[in-house]
Amino acid sequence: MRLTKKWFIVLLILWPMLFGIGIWDGEYVMSAVTGFGVTMAKYYEQKLDRIDKQKAAMIRDSANSKLMTFVFVALMLAFIIGVFFFDQPTVPLLETIYLVLGVLLTLRGLFMRSAYQDALIDTSNVIRL
What we know:
The chain is mainly alpha-helical. 79% of the residues lie in helices and 0% in strands. It starts with a helix and ends in a 9-residue tail after the last helix.
């Protein structure tokens, strides 16, 4: 299924509304975060299919390497803060999985977006000093 720009905008409005309802009701918060991440990653993955295969692979590799660096640093900080300062050696598993998956997919989509926009900028007429 292709995610058109209209559906992308609808989903970008729907997920924060569902998140707000989830905070009020308490059921849909983590699924809204995950859905937002899936929407971002899918839309910008489709945009990469329109450009050259080699450039798209380079953008995906760049986004994945930035994402993995962020994951390792964030996990180290979460472990240090959560375990040592708040004395919380365990967390609820399902909510954590949804939250981490949603955040990672959102970040991957945003990294691909910035790399895609950088790849489309024409630097042939830039004057260098």
